[in-house]
Amino acid sequence: MVPDCLFCKIARGEIPTELLLETENLVAFNDINPEAPTHILVVPKKHIPSLAHVEDGEQGILGEILLALRDLAEKKGLKQGFRVVVNTGTHGGQSVGHLHFHLLGGRSLRWPPG
Ligand code: 5GP
Ligand code: ZN
Fold first, then answer.
1. Pocket perturbation via mutation, ligand 1, pick of 95, 99, 100 by most ligand atoms within 8 A of CB
2. Which ligand is located closest to the Cα atom of residue 48?
3. Which residue, 28, 46, 71, 114, has most beta carbons within 10 Å?
4. How many domains does the chain have?
């Protein structure tokens, strides 16, 4: 845990945030600035700065996050589909330096992104 990291603080409960899911290793909560009717962030409790920083051997948490995304998409009724986004680094548009997966759904999403 990194003291001043926003998502570490949310994972620790230091910033009041309604959790949609909490397990031993991850939390999920609504994005504060939703880009779609459903916009959820799934975040490992461990501070990992980005996807580029994931180490060999951490495939377990990546798998857990993907299964959580699947379950959240089902729970939210995203039968027509959804998108999972992992912005990484400056060119990837990452603004919070703690690994997070966006789950977007509830409307038709355009492609390609900007
Ligand atoms: P990124 O741009 O790094 O891929 O995504 C960061 C996301 O975190 C953005 O979509 C932004 O709206 C969201 N976010 C930033 N601060 C907060 C916050 O305090 N609470 C919540 N729930 N989401 C936040
Ligand atoms: Zn963190």
1. 95
2. 2
3. 28
4. 1
